[in-house]
Protein 1
Amino acid sequence: MEQFKIHPLYRIHDLDSLMTSLWDFYRTRFLSLFIISLVMSLVTQYSVMLVDIKELQGIKDPAEMLAMLRSKMLPLAGLALLSLLFGTILHYYIFIKPLDEEINILSVIGKSFIYFIPYLIIMILFVFAGSVIIVLGVLALIVGVFFAALYLGMISFFILPVLMAEGPDIGRAIARTLKLSHTNFWQNIGWSAVIILIYLVLSMILSGIIMIPFAGNFLKTIFNPEGATEAFGTFFNPVYLGLSAMANALIMPLLPIFSFILYFNGRAREEAGDLTAPGDNETGNKVKVEDLYAKPENDKI
C-alpha cells in the first residue's frame, strides 16, 4: 500500500477536496486523457455505425423488432465488451500513470488485460444482482428505482480500483468492493449522486451545443413528422459523430477519476484507522478521575 500513497488522489477527502482533486488531476493530465478518450470515442462511434441500428427506426411491428434485435445480439454484445475494455484501459491509465511516469500507452493497454477478464466476470454477476435490486426498487415506486440505480452506480465505482490496487482475485475484489463501498455509506452515496448529476448536466450541455448545427433537421420534423427517419440519420452523420466523440472525450475521464477518489478515500480512512492501536478509543483516550487532581507529594518522589 505504501506505493499508492504517492498517488495524487490518495488522501482522506471531504467534498471540497474531492472536487479540488478531481479538477486538478483532470487539468494537469487533460491532454493525454482527452486524446485517449477521443480515440476510444471514435472507435466506439464507428463500431455503432457498423452495427447499423438505423434499421430499427422504421420497424413498427414488435415481433419484427425483437427478431431484428436478436439478429444483432452478437454485435451489441461486442459493443458492450468494447466499452468495458475501454473503461478498464482508462481506469488503469489513471491509476498507474502517476505512479510510473515512464509507462507508455501500449504498456497500459497490455497490462489492462490482466484486470479485464476478472472485471468482465464481476460485471456479469453485478448485472444479475443489480437486476434483483432494481426490481425491489420498482416495488418501492419511483424513488426506490432512483435510489437502487444510484446504489448500484456507487458500488460499481469501486470495482476497477479494487482490482487494480489489490489484485485481480475475483472473490477478494467482490468482498473488498462491498466493504469499502458500505463503509461511510451515506458519504459515498451522496458524493456519487453529486458527481453523476454534474456529469449528466455537462453531458446535456455538450450535447445541446453539438446539436446546434443540425437543429434545422429536427425542426423539420415538427412540420413534417414523416421526416423523422431522416432526422434520426443525423446521428450517423460523420460531422456529428466527430463532434459527439470530442464532446464525449471531454467528460469521459471524470467518472474514472472519481472512482479512484472514492477508493483512495476509503483506503486512506482504513489506513488511518489501522494506525490506532486496538482499544485506544475505549480506554486509552479516556480521562481518569485521578488525572484531574494533583498527585500527592509522596507519589512524585
Note: Residues 105-139 form the longest helix (35 residues).
Protein 2
Amino acid sequence: MERYSCSKLVIGSADDGNGEEAIFVKGTWFPTHFHLVITDGLAAWLCHPSEEEVKQRASQWDLPLSEYLHLSERYLALQQPLSIYAFDDTGDGHKRLSWTFEKEGMTLLWRWKCTKSPDSRKCNVEILDFLMSSNVNLSDKVVRDNELFEKMKVEAEKCLTQSERIANEKVEFESEIYAKFLGVLNSKKSKLRELRDKLSKQENTEKSPREEDTDKSEGFAEESDYDKSDEDPQKDITSSSKDKDVVANKPSRQKRTRLT
C-alpha cells in the first residue's frame, strides 16, 4: 500500500552560493519504487523512476530495496538537519535533486534526475491540494486530541475526588474499627483480671484446710512422745535388773587344754 509525504526542503541556490531557496517535494511511496513531484512555486518537475531503476540503484549501494526506499523516504519526507540538499540544473531544462547523509562514518550522496513537468500548474495544484488536505486532517486531529485531553482531564479530576473520598472513608473506618477494638480489648482484660482474682481466692481457700491438718498431725505426734515419757520408771529398772541376772547366770565355756 502506498504512502504519501510532502516536505519543504531548504536548498542552496545554484546562482548564488550564499543564498537559499525552498522547494516542496511531494512523494508517493510504493513497496518497490516511488514518485516525486517537485515545485518551487512556479515551475514543477517530476521524478518517476521505474521499479528496475530503483532496484539497480539500491544494488549499486549494496542495500536491500526496502532499506533504500526507507532511507529515501526518511530524507525526502522531512528535512534532516545534518543533510545537505541541492536542486541543480542539468543544462537541458531538467533538474537534479541530491542529498547527503552519513553512513558508517562516510558521507554519501544520492541524487535523482527530475524532468520538467508538461503541466506545472496541475502539479502545483496537486501539491497545494495535498497540503490543504493534510492541514485539515492535522487540524481535525488537534481538535480531537484537545477534546480527548479535556475529557481525560475531567476524568482525572473525578478520579482524584473519588480517591480523596475513599481515603477519608478509609481513615474514618480505621478509627471506628480501632475504637471498637479497644473496647473489646479492655473488656477482655477486665474479664481476665476477674478470672485471675477468682483463681487466687480459690487457691487460698484450698490452702487453709491443708495447713490445719498439718498442725493437727504435729500436735498428735508431740502428745505421743509425752505419753511415753510419763510411763512408770520402776518398770524400766526391774526389766533392766532381770536382764543383767540372766546374763550373769549363763554358764561360761572355758577352753580345755590337752596335756601330752
Note: The longest strand covers residues 106-116.
Protein 3
Amino acid sequence: MLLQICDILPRERPGVLACCNPIPPLVRQYLNEIHTIIMKAREAPLTKVHNFEKEWVYCFLHFCWSQDI
C-alpha cells in the first residue's frame, strides 16, 4: 500500500484512498497530512543519486588493469 502510494503519487485525496484496500483508520485520520506530504514530494526536484556500485567496479577494474592482473 505504501509503495503503491509512493509509486503513483496521487494528486488528489481520493487517489490516496484508492491506493488502500482496505483503508486503514490512520490513513483516513491523517489523509490531509499524507496528501500534503505527497504534494510536496511532487513539487520537489529530482536529485541525482550517487551510484557507489558503479564507482567501485570502475575503481576495481582500473586497479586490475594497472596491476596487469
Note: The radius of gyration is 21 Å.
Protein 4
Amino acid sequence: MKQRIAIVGLGLIGGSLARRLVNAGCEVVAWNHNDRPYETAEADGIRCVPTLAVLADAKPDVLVLCNPLKAMPQILGALKPLIDPSVTTLTDVGSVKEMVREQVRAVGLEHCYVGAHPMAGNELSGWESSDPTLYDGALWAITVDENTEYQRFRAVATMIVDHCANRLIVLDDTTHDRCAALISHMPHVISTAMINELVANPNRNIAAALAAGSWRDMTRVALTDPNRTRAMVEEDAANVEALLRNMANRLTLMANVLHGMAAQQGAPTAGDDKEMARFFVQGQPFREYKALTKEPDFAEHCETIELAIPETGWQQMLLESARRGEHIVRFDGYRQAMAQVRSSV
C-alpha cells in the first residue's frame, strides 16, 4: 500500500523527494513558504496547498520537514496544534539531528518524531534544481533515541526503502552529527578555504586557468550558496571545530616535514621520511574500499545479512549493524530486514 506523504519545503531536497515519491506512486501533498513552485509541481503530480493547516488536514502517514533548519522552530510551532500524531509520523531531512530533536521536544512532538538525513544533494538549490534522480542510490541515516516507537521508525523506513528505493542505516543523534561533520560539514570548510586561498593569491588568474580535475573535485561543494554552507557549519559547530583542529594538526605536521626537506634540499631525515610515508599510506583502507565500490557489480557481491529486529533494544541493535557497515536494503516482514555490507573500511 502506497503511503500519503506530506512535504514542507519544495527546494532542492524537498522538491526532488516529492517528485521521486510521486514517480513511485505515492500521494504527495506539499506546502512551500511561497507558491512559486506550485504550477510546475502540480504538473508533476504534487498536490500543493496554501497553508500548513491544509497540509496537516490531509492526515499524511509521514510528514517530512524539508525547510531550512533556521525555520524549524517556527514551522514546528505552527504544526503543533495541527498535526494528528495518531496518524502522522514526523520526520525531517536536516544535516544535524541533535538540534532538531531538541526543537521537536521543545514543542512536545517528540513522541511522533523520527530523524532522517538523506545523503543526497549537490551545490545547487531551489525547486528549479530539483530532480528525482538526485536520490538514485542514496543512503539515508535514520536517527532514533531510546523512546522512539518502532512503528514510527517503520513508517519512515517504508518511505525510504519501498518508495524511494534507497538504503538506510539507523543511528543515534550524536553519532550522526559527528559523522556528518566528518564527511560533509568539515569538508565544506576545507573546500571553501581552498577557493579563498586562490582568490587571495596574486597569481589567481593563472591558477584558475590551470585548474583541472583535482581542483574541480575538491572545490565543488565550495560553489554552494555560502549562506547555506555557513548555516550548516554553525549548526554543528562543536563537531566541526574538533575536526578542523585535527586537520590543522595533520597539515602542520606535513608542513613541518616539508620544511625540513626543503632545508635539506629534498633529502629527508629518517624521521621525516617515516612521517611522510605514514601520511600517504594511512588512508589506504579507504582507497581500497572506494576501489571496490566502483566495480560495476559491487552491490551484487556484497554480503547479505538477515536482521531479526527485537522488540526491545532494537535501536542499539541497528546502531551496531550500521557500525559493521551494514545497510538495510529491504524489509521482508515487520521485524525482518535484509542488509548488505556496503561500507566496511
Note: The two ends are 37 Å apart (CA to CA).
